[in-house]
TrEMBL record, chain A:
The lineage of its organism: Bacteria, Bacillati, Bacillota, Clostridia, Lachnospirales. This is ABC-2 type transport system ATP-binding protein. One of its GO terms (molecular function) is ATP hydrolysis activity. InterPro entries: AAA+_ATPase (IPR003593), ABC_transporter-like_ATP-bd (IPR003439), DrrA1/2-like_C (IPR025302), P-loop_NTPase (IPR027417). Residues 6-236 form the ABC transporter domain. Coiled coil: none annotated. Keywords: ATP-binding, Nucleotide-binding, Transport. Gene3D superfamilies: P-loop containing nucleotide triphosphate hydrolases. It comes from the Bacteria.
Automatic annotation (TrEMBL), chain B:
Signal peptide: none annotated. GO terms for molecular function: ABC-type transporter activity. GO terms for cellular component: plasma membrane. The keyword Magnesium does not apply. Keywords: Cell membrane, Membrane, Transmembrane, Transmembrane helix. PANTHER family: LINEARMYCIN RESISTANCE PERMEASE PROTEIN LNRN, MEMBRANE COMPONENT OF ABC TRANSPORTER YHHJ-RELATED. This is ABC-2 type transport system permease protein. InterPro entries: ABC-2_transporter_component, ABC2_TM. It comes from Anaerocolumna xylanovorans DSM 12503. It is found in: Cell membrane. Residues 17-376 form the ABC-2 type transporter transmembrane domain. It is a multi-pass membrane protein. The chain crosses the membrane at residues 16-34, 185-210, 231-256, 268-286, 298-317, 356-377. The keyword Cell membrane applies.
């Protein structure tokens, strides 16, 4: 059985009258990529800052690698890599010097550090830019430098706080591929984002957070199975009598039927081929229709159903 | 020692601005030390006027007046015609032409000496007016002797003798301003301005970079203990500050070797070293109060100029009103300046020695005070950030 890398129990963090993290619980096993998903202000970053001992907290317990995490837990910190939302590098140092500096905070041995720095540069594909100063780099390259600075010392636990914010699609894909590669190399990863597609793409387990609470957790499939909506069908129809709407509502798995602006929306709570039943009914009744499409549930639907609001602001 | 290296690499990137400051400050310091010295070289000196005497009487008394003028002024020989007089005055070969008219001696003897001499002088000449009064005084004396029954020879002899009597001139000036100061005094007077400005743009801005929240947190997340990080940063600041100070001391040795290689010179150096500690603490404190590099550059100007003007570096304390001086006493630069003056006028008395030591003590109290405030601000900041 995998070892527990991070254990957060009943974490409470208040800012004056605001409860940023509210009795939050989390356990992360070795080798996992855990996605912390939630809208802005949901408490993701605060939770991570508490985990890293950058912020104090009012209640609860945090353990990393089986030990209580404190600001002076330097032996634990040796195995943690952090990539913050904002790029945190020295403008006065080159790409190489920046990575060397941050790696040097963990690795004192010069030869080993040099090897690690070279590997990190290779990993984020910044070889052609290693003598560049950060101001000369594009947003995407800067993000990659930011990542290299956080992972050069080969940590066992990597915390990435929204690393793809304001990044072009190409750099974003590179970053996501890189995270998967780091995980393959054995690192446990905590990844926060409010981009559900990213989380769905790379995370082995997802925690949905809002108002500082852990609302649901599981794999993407598990979370989607948990909600009532299994399929949403959209059909363009000129006119639809009320009688037909009632009849469609009686079809198997259908739990919601709406018709507005010449569009029929049918929501189903089970089954995989609900569209065919609706189409059969319309053809039987001789109702002509235009464009037809069906959507499977997304994490946004999960979030919408759990919290009653959209994931993205 | 990664932090140490990064400190100096970052400083290297900012070296242009630091060097520019250094050069400007240095030029100012040396220039002002020269100017300041000239301004206070106030000594009493009797003015000598270039005067031409045209003696048309050729009497004993007219010769006596000539002798008097040749003793006290600079006599220039010119021709006795109108054109020559005009030319000599125009070309400024003479400033004053005295014509002793025929009947001069007779006029003195009868006491009617108002119209016995005539003069032509450069218009609005102050020295000319001064000479008028001197000649009037001389003629009055001659006339007095003659009226008292002295012969012309005796009257001439006595008046001439009296004119040789000089009085001791004592210039009363505001305390402190009258004494001539050494070059080292002026050089070291401007050091606080230089140190604060340079260190604030150099050290201050680097401290600010290290305190940027994201960078600070990234370093905090590392396995390097906080105490070690802060100690290395402080050490780097100390090394840079000490090197800056040492450069100034070496320069003072090169420029004012004779002044510096003395007991006083050593005290000047010690005073600046003590002030270096004040400046370092002050900059450490300010680095917690400002948030951006622009603000730090602005603070460098405001603080260095403010402390220099109010502390008596640019404006001598004796020219300040009492209330301003009272206020200045809460500034470290005031005590530095006061000590600088005490050192300059140091003649090895116990009282002076104690005054200098007391001033060192007060400067050190400022250094400790700023450092304690900095620690408090650091703690408050850490608490605020840590939540």
């Amino acid at each position: 059985m995998s070892e527990t890398v991070v254990k957060i129990e009943n974490l409470v963090k208040n800012y004056k009258n605001l409860t940023a993290v509210d009795h939050f619980n989390l356990e992360i096993k070795e080798g996992e990529i855990l996605g912390l998903l939630g809208p802005n202000g949901s408490g993701k970053t605060t939770t991570l800052n508490c985990l890293l001992s950058l912020l104090s907290f009012h209640e609860g317990k945090i353990e990393v690698f089986g030990e209580k995490m404190k600001p002076e837990s330097y032996s634990l910190k040796k195995n943690i890599g952090v990539i913050f939302q904002n790029v945190a590098v020295f403008d006065t140092l080159t790409v190489y010097e920046n990575i060397d500096f941050f790696c040097g905070l963990y690795i004192e041995e010069k030869a080993l550090r040099k090897k690690y720095v070279e590997e990190a540069i290779q990993f984020v594909e910044l070889g052609d830019f290693k003598n560049y100063y950060p101001k000369k780099l594009s947003g995407g390259l800067l993000r990659r430098l930011n990542i290299a600075c956080g992972i050069a010392h080969k940590p066992k636990l990597i915390v990435l706080d929204e690393p793809t914010v304001a990044v072009d699609p190409q750099s974003r894909n590179k970053i996501l591929e890189g995270i998967l590669e780091l995980n393959k190399q054995g690192a446990t990863i905590i990844y926060t984002s409010h981009y559900m597609e990213e989380v769905e793409e790379i995370c082995s387990r997802i925690v949905i957070m809002d108002k500082g609470k852990n609302l649901a957790e599981g794999t993407a499939e598990e979370l989607k199975r948990r909600i009532k909506n299994n399929e949403t069908i959209y059909i363009d129809i000129r006119s639809l009598p009320a009688e037909d709407m009632d009849n469609i509502r009686q079809l198997k798995h259908v739990y919601s039927v709406e018709y507005s602006e010449e569009r029929l929306t049918v929501k189903c709570d089970g089954g995989n081929h609900n569209l065919i039943h609706v189409m059969d009914y319309l053809q039987e009744r001789g109702i002509s229709f235009g464009r037809v499409h069906s959507e499977l549930p997304t994490l946004n639907d999960v979030f919408l159903e759990i919290t009653g609001k959209e994931l993205r602001d | 020692m990664k932090i140490f290296q990064v400190f100096f690499k970052t400083l290297k990137k900012r070296s242009v601005s630091v060097i520019i400051y250094f050069m400007i400050f240095l030029a100012l310091s040396v220039l002002m030390s020269g100017n300041g010295k000239k301004q206070t070289e106030a000594v009493y000196k009797d003015a000598k006027v270039k005067v031409a005497v045209l003696d048309r009487d050729n009497s004993v008394l007219s010769k006596s007046l000539y002798d008097y003028l040749s003793n006290t002024q600079k006599i220039v020989e010119i021709k006795d015609d109108k054109q020559s007089i005009s030319d000599e005055l125009f070309y400024q070969n003479v400033e004053y032409v005295l014509i002793i008219k025929k009947g001069f001696e007779e006029g003195i003897k009868t006491g009617k000496y108002e119209d016995i001499v005539e003069n032509v002088k450069v218009p609005q000449s102050i020295s000319g007016k001064l000479l008028d009064s001197k000649i009037d005084q001389y003629l009055s004396e001659l006339s007095t002797y003659m009226a008292a029954g002295f012969s012309a020879e005796e009257a001439a002899k006595n008046t001439l003798k009296n004119s040789e009597i000089t009085a001791d001139v004592k210039l009363y000036k505001v305390q402190g301003a009258s004494e001539e100061k050494s070059s080292a005094y002026y050089y070291y007077l401007y050091i606080p301005y230089v140190l604060i400005g340079m260190l604030m743009t150099g050290v201050g801005s680097i401290l600010l970079i290290f305190r940027k929240k994201d960078l600070d947190w990234r370093i905090k997340c590392s396995s390097m203990p906080e105490l070690r990080k802060n100690s290395i940063l402080l050490l780097a600041c100390g090394v840079f500050s000490f090197v800056c100070w040492a450069v100034f001391v070496l320069l003072s040795l090169l420029l004012y070797r004779t002044d510096i290689l003395t007991g006083k010179g050593a005290l000047f150096i010690l005073n600046s070293l003590v002030f270096l500690l004040v400046a370092m603490s002050l900059i450490y404190m300010v680095s917690f109060l400002v948030k951006t590099l622009n603000a730090m550059n602005m603070a460098a100007n405001v603080i260095s100029l403010g402390l220099s003007f109010l502390g008596g570096i640019f404006v001598p304390l004796e020219y300040m009103s009492k209330s301003v001086v009272q206020f200045s006493k809460v500034l470290p630069t005031y005590w530095y300046v006061v000590n600088n003056e005490a050192i300059d006028s140091f003649v090895n008395t116990t009282k002076q020695y104690h005054t200098i030591l007391r001033n060192f003590g007060i400067e050190l109290i400022f250094a400790v005070l700023f450092f304690v405030i900095a620690l408090y601000l650091s703690k408050s900041r850490a608490i605020a950030q840590h939540g």
